[in-house]
UniProtKB/TrEMBL annotation:
<dbReference type="InterPro" id="IPR001537">
    <property type="entry name" value="SpoU_MeTrfase"/>
</dbReference>
<dbReference type="InterPro" id="IPR013123">
    <property type="entry name" value="SpoU_subst-bd"/>
</dbReference>
<dbReference type="InterPro" id="IPR004441">
    <property type="entry name" value="rRNA_MeTrfase_TrmH"/>
</dbReference>
<dbReference type="InterPro" id="IPR029028">
    <property type="entry name" value="Alpha/beta_knot_MTases"/>
</dbReference>
<protein>
    <submittedName>
        <fullName>23S rRNA (Guanosine(2251)-2'-O)-methyltransferase RlmB</fullName>
    </submittedName>
</protein>
<keyword id="KW-0808">Transferase</keyword>
<dbReference type="InterPro" id="IPR029064">
    <property type="entry name" value="Ribosomal_eL30-like_sf"/>
</dbReference>
<keyword id="KW-0489">Methyltransferase</keyword>
<feature type="domain" description="RNA 2-O ribose methyltransferase substrate binding">
    <location>
        <begin position="10"/>
        <end position="85"/>
    </location>
</feature>
<dbReference type="Pfam" id="PF08032">
    <property type="entry name" value="SpoU_sub_bind"/>
</dbReference>
<comment type="similarity">
    <text>Belongs to the class IV-like SAM-binding methyltransferase superfamily. RNA methyltransferase TrmH family.</text>
</comment>
<dbReference type="InterPro" id="IPR029026">
    <property type="entry name" value="tRNA_m1G_MTases_N"/>
</dbReference>
<dbReference type="Pfam" id="PF00588">
    <property type="entry name" value="SpoU_methylase"/>
</dbReference>
Length: 248
């Protein structure tokens, strides 16, 4: 697969931001000077809405703070370092390989090193893709790419507006879902074969209530130490390879 990396994440200035949108780059977030309604800015906002980019209206002080050039002209965009895939492409990949779909869904992972490590695990475990939410989660930054150790070139990552709704949609495709949580059944007692979505929660709060309620099973990882929780990427790795083991 071709390398999909772009050079820079932060884009400043009206022309540069508008060109990024028109060139089809994936833009995770757009910061716009609050109250600015002139023509070029309205055009940028219109392009951002077409792409369903998160738009933040902020004070000039905030723009000055995050600007590196000092010439932001009231707009700063954060573009993804890699191109996002789609959930449909992941399901097609599974069909091409003749395998039951295996997807990893991340509920608000905010640490780029964790996201990169999980993408690397997904690749090594043979998962067909990783799904992340648009809000309250890290996107495909350069740090994520580095932490994935090259796996981002081979493992599709899709960004969705609503993780709970995506789970409902994927259930129609025959997938069932297991989430990681301390209060669940031992992963060794669960049947993790077949079309499956593994849901991993955020570093601090775990899987959110709404997403957890959509899951068919809650799996816990047996532990014997003196602390009671694992790093999100470590938990993802343990559960992903239990799925690999059961799938044979």
């Amino acid at each position: 697969m071709e390398n999909r990396e772009f050079e820079e994440n932060k884009i400043e200035g009206r022309n540069a931001v508008l060109e990024a949108f028109r060139a089809g780059r994936s833009v995770d977030k757009l910061f716009v000077l609050d109250g600015n309604q002139d023509g070029p800015v309205r055009t940028i906002i219109r392009e951002a809405k077409k792409q369903d980019t998160i738009i933040n209206y902020v004070a000039k002080e905030r723009l000055d703070q995050i600007s590196e050039t000092g010439k932001h002209q009231g707009v700063i965009a954060y573009a993804a370092s890699y191109v996002y895939s789609s959930v449909e492409a992941m399901l097609e990949l599974a069909r091409e390989k003749g395998e039951p779909p295996f997807l990893i869904l991340l509920d608000n992972i905010e640490d780029p090193h964790n996201l990169g490590a999980i993408i690397r695990t997904a690749n090594l475990a043979g998962a067909h893709g990783v799904i992340i939410p648009k809000r309250r989660a890290v996107g495909l930054t350069a740090t994520v790419a580095k932490a994935s150790a090259g796996a981002l070139n081979y493992t599709p990552v899709a960004k969705v507006t609503n993780l709970s709704a995506e789970i409902d949609q994927l259930k129609k495709e025959g997938l069932w879902f297991v989430c990681a949580d301390m209060g669940g059944e031992s992963m060794y007692d669960l049947d993790l074969k077949g079309p499956i979505g593994l849901v991993i929660g955020s570093e601090g709060e775990g899987v959110s209530r709404l997403v957890r309620e959509k899951c068919d099973f809650v799996a816990s990882i047996p532990m014997k130490g003196d602390i009671d929780s694992l790093n999100a990427s470590v938990a993802a790795g343990i559960l992903a390879f239990e799925i690999v083991r059961q799938r044979g």
